[in-house]
UniProtKB/TrEMBL annotation, chains A, B:
Species of origin: Nocardioides aquaticus
Protein family membership: Belongs to the class-II aminoacyl-tRNA synthetase family.
Chemical reaction(s) catalysed: tRNA(His) + L-histidine + ATP = L-histidyl-tRNA(His) + AMP + diphosphate + H(+)
Residue span, Aminoacyl-transfer RNA synthetases class-II family profile domain: 20-350
Top-rank taxon, per record: Bacteria
Keywords: Aminoacyl-tRNA synthetase, ATP-binding, Cytoplasm, Ligase, Nucleotide-binding, Protein biosynthesis
InterPro entries to which the protein is assigned, alphabetical: aa-tRNA-synth_II, aa-tRNA-synth_II/BPL/LPL, Anticodon-bd, Anticodon-bd_dom_sf, His-tRNA-ligase, HisRS-like_core, HisRS/HisZ
Name this polypeptide is given: Histidine--tRNA ligase
Length: 453, 453
């Protein structure tokens, strides 16, 4: 076939970049597991009636068809779509397997999702996400809201990323405030306020009047609320100063303050938590805590993650499963950072050592050296051909392999194949230093034997 | 939504089963990396002209369509299919990125693939495979054939599976034998012989006569060749005793003997390598070494893996990329073993410790205990509610968490929140043993802190 070209919206990584992605996923997974989250994977397809809910996302759903409908074609084939996030398949998984799960069920999931949207920086048709959620049966303590935010702050704080900010809000706070203010259509008001990052304040105010039935005065107070942004619990007094009283508002204020206080010991230079009362998240199913994650210098990507509390993540009519979770956009974050050179893979191959060949006959001896090194966890490969040593060293250099191993027949003689009859040296091709080494004991200095995952 | 039911052909794992799958993938990946294989992932879709080659597989290809064609719908959307193996996307990846790869390029890839075939035991519509391949530019030394087989023998030998057999053959041996024998249509003859596991020998012999233009006598000799099955290099003499001479046959004999000899030091009770001259593998692109992997007691699954040498894995018209690789069917192997209880996950959650709560006020102190344990790599979770201790212990039991941690206010008094004012005990709920413990130093005994991955 002719040389293929990349498919727009379906980015792929070169081996050295994939090393970075794997390290990121391994780090996230390790933190999630330390907090007792179990890993699951869901199939990539769902029945269309699970996916398509009549919303904006519907037209981005990819549907599966068989290329040629054969006798094995079943009706079900025609009604499968690929998941566009990990929340929908997870809630279906919880319902389907509820009898086999212990609640509260804590899971993490790192998988791709697919959306047929127009590709742009940070937006892809296939993209990987890392999600954590805690799901209860019938009930789920509020403290889990604090917990999932803490865990994601800790996990992302372990990654080599530009500074991140978790912008947190609470739907009860907004809803209670709007209700206490006397706005009739609270749901519409939330949807309109959510456009504040795209539209000027005056336009949003006008829409609050037109679409949510607010007065000019009410619209102004909504905007005042939405401009409160602080890194501590001082928002409580500032909201109270706006003079609205409502029971739900008080609950929201208390919950939001608890999230901020609960994260105080895990925030750092790398990850901060801020109250931002403008954050609403468009999705209707959030019912309490809501958050979006932003990356310094990459505000153009909008959020790189988000999540919140949903009192009905799933329901089968008899039982309701409340949940709280946070999703992190692995592709959305890493791909722009890689494109900008902020994140770069150090080595495209896991090998720390290339075992050089004197001639083709020395391959078995070289393999024994490699086996001895691998037995102690040193990744290595034997040279593909017995080229001149200089060429073998350049081969290692191009692959990013830091050490080259040379074995020579011992001048005292003996069989070339017998390990005892060889003398060994290992060369650090970065420094040029070459020292005697024993395949049974040598390991690369810690700094240079760092591996892919 | 009503309680969903599983989708036929799209199996999913419960958390404890997923632990097993992750361990298997982690073990395979570790061995592959020790041998210098770099990991890549390819997008799940390919242009249809890359996938559909007019073969049997075509009608199993899933094609992507957008649910609603919006203004963003591009012509390309309509011509994307999901990959049905990892070889086709890999060869496309090699062509597309050849300028950025160092050859011989060694990669491993663990991803799902999709086929719209009729689901049955070991055959799924979504299934995970683990592939290793070495690809050269223009040329690739034969010793890499030996290497990939060795690496896969070593990797699979590290898994807790029933005994596996690598049945190895060489297409040059078969082709040379048929040619030396005087059979005209060698390709058809290979395809017919490949049916020996499905059809009786007489039928295969008749088809060799009818379809490949063989005489009765030639067909008989083909069958004799195909019945040779030995675990050492004695096949060389047995083939020669059949009285056929051909240059290609000699090359095939030498290569196959080299594979068997080259694996002699890595085979074990768990993984053996056998010469089986019946193995042809239907696919036309194999040109030398071919192999299939079978699992003892699971012969009904047919092979659980396979691979071989292809002199033109990929070609862009100017450059040809020969390759050799082996693929292992992760889903095909693990799912039947899990269904039979041969493989079972020990713990559905990664947590080794549940930190119990005396009351809701003790949660911050419990969180500090958890943080101290996690700092030393001990996965743990704080109890969701301050239920009676017996209930908290049963909660841990149901989740498979072996230890429960209790903190009590020190009788000497002090603030309940201050870590210094608490005494701690940890209970092994399997033995009932309960001992004093310090959150800053306690770790579970090695045997019981085994973790998911």
């Amino acid at each position: 076939m002719p040389k293929p070209t990349p498919l727009s919206g379906f980015p792929e990584l070169l081996p050295a970049q994939r090393v970075v992605e794997r390290e990121v996923i391994a780090t996230l997974s390790r933190v999630f597991e330390l907090h007792g989250f179990a890993n699951i994977e869901t199939r990539v397809v769902e029945p269309l009636d699970v996916l398509a809910k009549g919303g904006e996302i519907d037209k981005e759903i990819y549907v599966l068809q068989r290329l040629q409908a054969g006798p094995d074609q079943t009706a079900a084939d025609a009604t499968l779509g690929m998941h566009f996030d990990l929340t929908v398949p997870f809630s279906r998984y919880v319902l389907e397997n509820s009898g086999h799960l212990e609640f509260p069920f804590r899971r993490f999931q790192v998988q791709p999702a697919w959306r047929g949207e127009r590709p742009q920086e940070g937006r892809y048709r296939q993209f990987t996400q890392a999600d954590i959620d805690i799901v209860g049966r019938d009930e789920l303590g509020f403290h889990h809201d604090v917990e999932v935010v803490r865990v994601m702050v800790e996990a992302l704080g372990a990654l080599p990323l530009p500074p991140l900010t978790f912008c947190v809000n609470n739907r009860k706070l907004i809803q209670g405030f709007y209700r206490g203010l006397g706005i009739e259509d609270v749901t519409t008001a939330i949807r309109v306020i959510d456009k504040l990052d795209k539209l000027p304040a005056e336009v949003v105010a006008a829409q609050l009047v037109e679409q949510a039935g607010a007065t000019e005065e009410q619209a102004q107070r909504c905007l005042e609320l939405a401009t409160i942004r602080v890194a501590d619990t001082s928002f409580v007094e500032r909201v109270r100063a706006l003079g609205v009283t409502d029971e739900l508002l008080e609950t929201g204020l208390a919950e939001l303050a608890a999230v901020v206080e609960g994260c105080a010991d895990v925030v750092s230079d790398r990850v901060s938590v801020e109250v931002d009362l403008r954050i609403a998240r468009g999705l209707d199913y959030y019912t309490g805590t809501v958050l979006e994650i932003f990356m310094a210098g990459y505000e153009r990507l909008k959020s790189v993650g988000g999540g919140g509390r949903y009192d009905a993540l799933a329901s089968d009519g008899r039982t309701t499963y409340p949940g709280v979770g946070v999703s992190f956009g692995v592709s959305r974050t890493l791909l722009p950072l890689m494109a900008d050179g902020v994140l770069a893979g150090s080595r495209p191959v896991p090998s720390a050592v290339l075992v050089a060949l004197t001639d083709e006959e020395s391959r078995p001896a070289a393999q024994r050296v490699a086996t001895a090194l691998r037995a102690r966890g040193v990744a290595c490969e034997v040279a593909p051909t017995p080229a001149k040593f200089g060429k073998q060293i350049r081969f290692a250099e191009r692959r990013g392999i830091p050490y080259v191993w040379f074995s020579r027949r011992d001048p005292d003689g003996g069989e070339p194949d017998a390990a005892g009859a060889l003398t060994h040296e290992v060369k650090d091709i970065r420094s040029g230093e070459q020292v005697a080494a024993d395949p049974a004991t040598w390991t690369p200095p810690p700094r240079t034997c760092e591996r892919g995952s």
